[in-house]
Write a structure and sequence with these properties.
Length: 475
């Protein structure tokens, strides 16, 4: 229970800040609700259940292992072998991908509003939001699956079992990133509020000096705009198999006699292969099929001498069976390299023996399945994000419990009102406020800005479920 009596801040900038925070959390909660609702959608019945004893994709500390790729010569235009006997989930995947992009675009509008108001840098939060966008942008829109019946599928938003499993893997990661972003957004607001109280209570004119980097904000806006602009072309089937294309630098590891150093090539990524040629007009080149090389790695900065010198980011494609069989790709733009890395890794995963293995719908899910397409570094981040989500759930339970106890106390007869503790010293008050912020963020924001806690609780659906259970038990 709150025992601190403090005058809420009524400065216009604080009111605008909280308005942006509430809108961002409301939008974030609507995305979380969509994710929860999506888990309950029905799926189409697969045609066959394949042997589930196929080798699964192992993980290593430094790279993600998927299905192999092999260099092959090609002549002419390479395209997908569209089979009429399989359902590729495309209609439903396109719907989910661009719904999420539009929702994240609106959420980012509120995040930018907070960014303009606060005096503290939000660079880590912006980086995490960029990861959310890359997760969604890298979603495949072709997951082929055999169905027991294909009647009535075309033109409807339906998933096969395999298609839904793939989307749930994407949504699982997106959910954890999103909850962490919303929580950090509230933390940034609380820092601004504490800073304002410090100036008011101590009569200080001190200004907080910090550096904001707006470059990535523009990058995120450009990525979202570009993807949404391409939506109608993709929906109508135009260039459906060309996911990414552009100039990158390529060389084979220990390549000494064929070429010297890095060679500029034009790359095109499809759902099944990565092809490259001398330029975009060339009809001859090579294809890296997802069937012989079997690993992809984003080389860390400390292991990349070129990156320190030229700020180039490397991607390594190699064979797990024969590590000497290696191809290196690099870009002079870090964001572009991350997009290529995530897209290639995603296409490796959906072509891997593990993913192509159809699982019976009645079979229990493997608890580790959602982690197969992650590097160890990403797994460590997700462990932290899961801890944040569990803390938020605990705060919701604590909030609903305290609210119920407060209602009981008020309804009980002959009870003397509890006197609020009012610190006499300004420094003591600041210590109390900071401690409250660390213990209960929602309560802190509520009493310092005179807003309802319900408006700033993350994952409102979970809160409603808890309240429904409490009402059920109370009956």
């Amino acid at each position: 229970m709150n025992n601190i009596k403090v005058d809420p801040l009524n400065a216009p900038e604080i009111q605008v800040l909280m308005d942006m925070i509430k809108k961002a959390i409301n939008k974030g909660n609507s995305i979380l609700n969509f994710i929860d609702d999506f888990s309950n959608i029905p799926t189409e019945t697969p045609l066959h259940s394949v042997n589930n004893d196929l080798p699964m994709s192992p993980m290593s500390p430094s790279y993600f292992f998927a299905s192999p790729i092999k260099t092959r010569k090609y002549s002419g235009i390479y395209s997908l072998d569209g089979s009429s006997t399989k359902y590729n989930n495309s209609h439903a995947l396109i719907f989910v991908k661009y719904l999420l992009l539009n929702e994240l675009k609106e959420l980012f509008h509120y995040i930018k509003g907070v960014y303009k108001i606060v005096n503290f840098e939000m660079n880590d939060l912006i980086d995490k939001f960029l990861q959310c966008i890359i997760i969604v942008v890298s979603m495949s829109i072709v997951i082929e699956d055999s169905l027991a019946s294909t009647e009535g599928i075309d033109g409807k938003v339906k998933f096969s079992v395999k298609g839904k499993k793939y989307v749930m893997d994407v949504l699982f990661r997106l959910r954890l990133h999103l909850i962490n972003i919303l929580n950090e957004l509230k933390y940034n607001a609380s820092e601004e509020i504490l800073f304002t109280y410090k100036k008011n209570l101590l009569n200080s004119d001190a200004k907080f000096q910090m550096e904001k980097k707006a470059e990535k904000i523009n990058v995120i806006d450009n990525i979202i705009s570009r993807e949404i602009k391409d939506y109608f072309n993709i929906k109508n089937g135009s260039n459906n198999d060309q996911i990414l294309k552009g100039n990158l630098y390529k060389r084979k590891k220990n390549e000494k006699f064929i070429t010297k150093g890095w060679v500029k090539k034009y790359f095109i990524l499809t759902h099944r292969a990565l092809k490259y040629s001398d330029n975009d007009n060339s009809k001859d080149g090579r294809i890296l099929m997802f069937c012989d090389y079997n690993c992809i790695e984003l080389i860390p900065e400390e292991d990349d001498k070129d990156r320190k010198k030229n700020r180039l980011v490397r991607i390594r494609l190699f064979s797990h069976q024969d590590p000497k069989q290696t191809i290196l790709i690099k870009s002079n733009d870090e964001i572009e390299a991350l997009l290529w890395f995530n897209q290639i890794r995603d296409k490796m995963y959906i072509n891997s023996p593990f993913f192509l293995n159809e699982v019976n719908e009645d079979e229990k899910d493997d608890v580790n399945e959602k982690y197969r397409n992650l590097t160890n570094e990403e797994l460590r981040d997700l462990v932290k994000y899961i801890s944040v989500e569990e803390k938020i759930k605990t705060n919701i339970i604590k909030y609903t419990f305290l609210k119920k106890m407060d209602e009981i106390a008020k309804s009980a007869p002959n009870q003397e009102p509890v006197n609020n503790y009012t610190p006499t010293d300004s420094k003591d008050l600041l210590v109390k406020l900071e401690r409250l912020r660390n213990e209960n963020m929602d309560l802190f924001l509520s009493i310092t800005t005179d807003n309802k806690q319900e408006d700033i609780i993350i994952n409102i659906m979970h809160k409603k479920k808890i309240m429904n259970k409490q009402q059920k038990y109370s009956k």
